[in-house]
Design brief:
Layout: E1 3-10, H1 16-24, E2 25-28, E3 31-37, H2 38-44, E4 48-53, H3 63-69, E5 74-77, H4 93-101, E6 109-114, H5 137-161, E7 168-172, E8 178-180, E9 189-191, E10 206-210, E11 216-224, H6 228-235, E12 257-259, E13 264-266
Parallel strand pairs: 1-11, 4-5, 4-6
Antiparallel strand pairs: 1-10, 2-3, 7-10, 8-9, 12-13
Length: about 280
């Protein structure tokens, strides 16, 4: 696709709640400033805000992020409980997005789509029978979740194109996964790095696609999601003194630190997670 991919984007923390709180909320030292978040910032700048989620709406792990979503002008949660309460495919969000895109408004609009993507358990995420054959069933299904998410993003992109209006589309993951049970060819899989996370847990995809982009570019540079809110403000064209001076697509590298569930540590201090090969 025409747009820019960052090879080197690094998550803040090893799971959804700890990672997104550090991305979506302003922080002063180690404290979260809950009232200063990505939704309140967009609303104050005149955006109509939408939050469409295929993750949970309640539960210990879902509530902190769902509460940010509930601040939006329009919100839809496919699940009335936590993330595991029901199993909807991410494509359930596409007709919701299409319906709201057709509602014409004069002010700019921000749509947040919170998908399950490649969340374990991988076979449960798949709409179709596994067609990959890589190492074992877990890894084959994981590969297919990546393919499925790519197709989902393509569908979102086409819905935006169909509006015949300028748009910008940002995609990223909240965290990565690390290998588990490597010694077993049957049970080996990928899991959250909630204990002793390694580098794989923090390596995440990041792509910024604009309707007027003319080429496909890959920027290989270290970028930290701890600066997400600043880059987000720049992306939306919002000028806010405490969030100034950061561009997602700048080639200036960030110093990489990550939260390991206990404290912030240098990314380079973590172990590698070697790829399991066929």
């Amino acid at each position: 696709v025409k747009g820019t991919v960052i090879d080197g984007y690094t998550a803040t923390a090893p799971n959804t709640t700890t990672a997104l709180l550090r991305m979506f909320l302003q922080m002063k030292g180690d404290d979260f400033v809950y009232e200063n978040n990505l939704i309140s910032l967009a609303k104050q700048a005149g955006f109509t805000t939408y939050w469409f989620s295929n993750q949970g709406s309640i539960g210990n792990w879902n509530m902190p992020i769902a509460k940010i979503g509930y601040l939006s002008d329009h919100k839809v949660f496919t699940k009335k409980g936590d993330s595991g309460s029901m199993n909807f495919y991410d494509t359930a969000l596409l007709p919701v997005l299409e319906r709201h895109l057709k509602e014409k408004r004069n002010n700019p609009r921000l749509f947040v789509l919170h998908i399950m993507g490649s969340h374990p358990y991988f076979p449960e995420r798949l709409e179709h029978t596994i067609h990959y054959d890589y190492y074992n069933r877990n890894f084959s299904a994981y590969l297919q979740t990546i393919e499925q998410t790519d197709a989902f993003l393509q569908s979102v992109y086409k819905l935006l194109e169909a509006q015949h209006l300028p748009f910008s589309m940002l995609y990223f993951a909240d965290h990565g996964l690390m290998t588990k049970d490597r010694s077993s060819s049957f049970f080996a899989t990928l899991t959250h790095g909630d204990t002793h996370p390694n580098k794989a847990v923090y390596r995440i995809p990041f792509a910024l696609l604009n309707s007027d982009d003319s080429e496909h570019k890959v920027i290989k540079v270290n970028k930290s999601a701890f600066h997400f809110l600043k880059g987000y403000a720049h992306w939306l064209g919002i000028e806010e003194p405490s969030l100034s001076g950061y561009d997602f697509l700048s080639t200036t590298p960030d110093t990489l630190k990550v939260f390991n569930q206990y404290e912030n540590v240098p990314f380079e201090s973590l172990e590698e997670d070697e790829v399991i090969r066929n």
